[in-house]
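Need tokens for this chain, all 661 residues.
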Amino acid sequence: MLNAYDKDYRVLDLVRQREIQDSATYTVSQKLHVTENLISRLGLEKELVGHAGCVNCLEWNESGQILASASDDMYVILWDPFRYKKKLVLQTGHDGNIFSVKFMPKSNDSILVSGAGDGEVRVHDLTLSEPILICNCHINRVKRIATTSTVPFLFWSAAEDGLILQHDIRTPHICKSNEFSTVLIDLVNHMGRYAEAKCVTVNPKRPELIAVGASDAYIRMYDRRMIKFSQVPIIWGHRGDWERGNTRRAGEGDPDENIPLGCAQYFIAGHLRSRQRDINRSFTTTYLTFSADGNELLVNMGGEQIYLFDINNPKNVKTCFGYTNIYSGDFGKCCMEKDNEDNIEYATKNVKVLPPHVEKLKSQANECFEQHNYILAITLYAKAISYCPTAAVLYANRAAAYMKRTWDGDIYAALKDCQMTLLLDPGHVKAHFRLARCLYDLNRAAEADKVLKEFQQKFPEYASNSACQALRMDIKDAINSGRDYKISQSMYQISEYEKEWRRNAIDYKMRFCGHCNTTTDIKEANFFGNNGQYIVAGSDDGSFFIWDRNTANIIRVLRGDERIVNCLQPHPSTCLLATSGIDPVIRLWSPLPEDGSINDRKIQNLEDAANANQIRMNTDPFVVTLMNMGYGFPIQQAEYSEDGDEQQDQSITQPLNCRPS
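Here are the structure tokens for all 661 residues:
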């Protein structure tokens, strides 16, 4: 199979067709269809030209023989992706930009569902001239449609009116009925009057679980078996007269009554609890998807990074590893306490002598750190951790690099690494001090004060250290001035259930950085490969990024659009990726032949590209808008500043926030 790739990728049309038709070959191809070698050769195979506007969504059929695309031009096109030809151009009848298109499962690819900016959901039977269903129950833009192969007669729509509707194509539908039995979730009842639903997805292995992304930093997962369809009448007005929060909800009944407390589980990147409102940015989930095994949830957070959540791990409910309920101000038991059996178990696993290849990576990372190349240092530490995941020194060193790099979320990532270090090595001096520093930098002065006091008790020889004294004074000033951590409160009244769900939100498992997601609210992130071994996402700089899922390291960046890449949809059974964005074309990416030709779409310096995007995310939105319109505002590289703390720990009088061990 791999020989066919290596000889000439251009002959893969026939190979792909045989894979799809032959189940035995298909099984083999699933195991090998995305490998490191193929990723390293990924390049532009073909541009599909046919739309007259931005291409906002892409969707493969189950076999991978058809690619559907939809656009601002309000057309859906079905493509033969291997002959690069149109199979069908569908005039949808929508009056607004189409944001989502899906094949209905088990329909022989003859039934499509589309959702658009006109607030309509349309179901198209391709054998008929007219749609078989037109739903205008939504009163704002429909952003996503979701389907699942295990329930082929249902689909779901998410719109900016805050509603998640459940549609059943087996039953007749009456729009805007007072019975309104299609309302599955009404976010306004819980989040407040300005709630918007941005995306929705269904677990492929447990279709009772439905995840929703909204106009805040929380990700919501519901067990729809426990949801009672809304019985509260909706007051509908004319769309042209509609004002947020005034045209619907009669205001009768308990807003929590249709969704029981145990029905929902929330997720959030821990540091975003205190950053719900930002001067320059708002946080919105632009895309989310379950892994193929249904155990993980991948989320592209607008205005921030990409996060992977473990939906089965309740241990992450209360932030990092060593503290209980740290967000509510209850410091709880410190992770260094000796009577904690779990911590003792961790400590016995600590690897103190690294294997030679890991020691080499650590040395290279330390050298990068000394040269202030914190981006590459973090990459190397992460690679070393993937080989040796129970070596405390690697987490401690990466924490120091995070604290120096200071991308969005880095201080919190450093806090998590400090906690892991102390689980593995409770006597690690630097990690304990850095933990206090991270808490202070995260405006959690009360927790920082407790950690620092414990540090001084446990390591009295460091109590007179200049860095320790300086941090103690900073913490004291923060507490006295009231600059302490507070969970960001919603501007609008939220339900009691919503408060409880937010309190119990699960923290992230992994984080993927480097792209920029501030300009559009439809930017996707997806698993790539049969085991989801790679993560792909587009960016506001016109590139798309590929990360190694195991290390979270960027392994490839390719230029995918003249301005912004929004959509990335991997082929279900072969190494083929479809992308689209602002350009009115779809691009197909596959491994190029090893014939010595130059891939002019490849971005050479991955670290510079990632750093520029992090600066872009913190640039004035007006300037970014002008940049996206083609005006020249060059993004300057960040300057690394020294604070005098980067010195070797040679005595107790030297600073503790020092270079890696």
